[in-house]
């Protein structure tokens, strides 16, 4: 599969912006997953967040210990109940990962492949229909996504596609790797 040189130049020029966007999307999703997994809100005090993240080890910090003891004086109050739960069950990687579904994880991870990977390994170069088909293949099932629903997922994540899409479809045959089908107008004829 060979692409016209001007298409390659245009795509390569966009890659730093696509990579920056991908990293920002990953950070936003990770922060949202942390918030959701923690079960805390912006209005909860900073010491409570430290306790949820570090667990009992956070009580070694004077501020956290002092605030925890203040809250413990009124065991019925909501802050103490959250603090007691945070102390005994700090957040872990599995809690955070459980907040990111398989399709989101796939899109965030493979939006722009690492290094000098071939273009077909980067999902940002597929039209939405091909992207939905490829996601179903890579995840070993049909996640119930079509072109419209997969678009909603990558847009919600804040990802941006290349302005030049390379692949219009994906051919899938049992027992064989998925084969991306490029747009003909961007290829060099064989």
What would you say this structure looks like, in words?
Helices cover 53% and strands 5% of the residues. The model has no long low-confidence stretch (mean pLDDT 90). The protein has two domains: 5-34 and 101-183, no CATH class; 39-96, no CATH class. Helix 2 packs parallel to helix 4 and helix 7 (128-138) packs across helix 8. By secondary structure, the protein is mainly alpha-helical. It has a two-stranded antiparallel sheet with strand order 1-2. The chain has helices spanning 5-38, 46-54, 62-72, 78-88, 93-97, 102-110, 128-138, 147-157; strands at 167-171, 179-182.
Give the N-to-C terminal Cα separation.
9 Å
Shape: elongated
Looking at how many chains there are and whether they match, the oligomeric state comes to single chain
Indicate the mean pLDDT. 90
**C-alpha-based Rg, rounded:** 23 Å
Largest sheet: 2 strands, antiparallel
What are the defining features of this structure?
190 residues, 2 domains, two-stranded antiparallel ribbon, 5% strand
Gist of the model:
The protein is built from eight helices and two strands.
């Amino acid at each position: 599969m060979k692409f016209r040189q001007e298409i390659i130049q245009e795509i390569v020029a966009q890659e730093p912006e696509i990579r920056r966007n991908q990293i920002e999307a990953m950070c936003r999703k990770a922060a949202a997953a942390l918030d959701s997994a923690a079960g805390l809100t912006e209005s909860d005090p900073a010491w409570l967040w430290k306790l949820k993240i570090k667990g009992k080890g956070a009580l070694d910090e004077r501020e956290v210990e002092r605030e925890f003891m203040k809250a413990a004086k009124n065991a019925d109050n909501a802050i103490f109940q959250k603090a007691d739960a945070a102390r005994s069950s700090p957040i872990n990687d599995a809690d955070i990962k459980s907040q990111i579904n398989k399709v989101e994880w796939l899109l965030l991870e493979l939006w722009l492949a690492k290094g000098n990977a071939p273009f077909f390994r980067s999902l940002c170069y597929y039209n939405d229909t091909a992207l939905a088909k490829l996601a179903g293949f890579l995840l070993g099932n049909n996640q119930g996504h079509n072109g419209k629903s997969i678009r909603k997922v990558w847009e919600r994540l804040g990802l941006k596609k290349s302005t030049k899409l390379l692949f219009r479809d994906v051919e899938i045959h049992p027992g064989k790797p998925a084969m991306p089908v490029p747009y003909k107008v961007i290829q060099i004829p064989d």
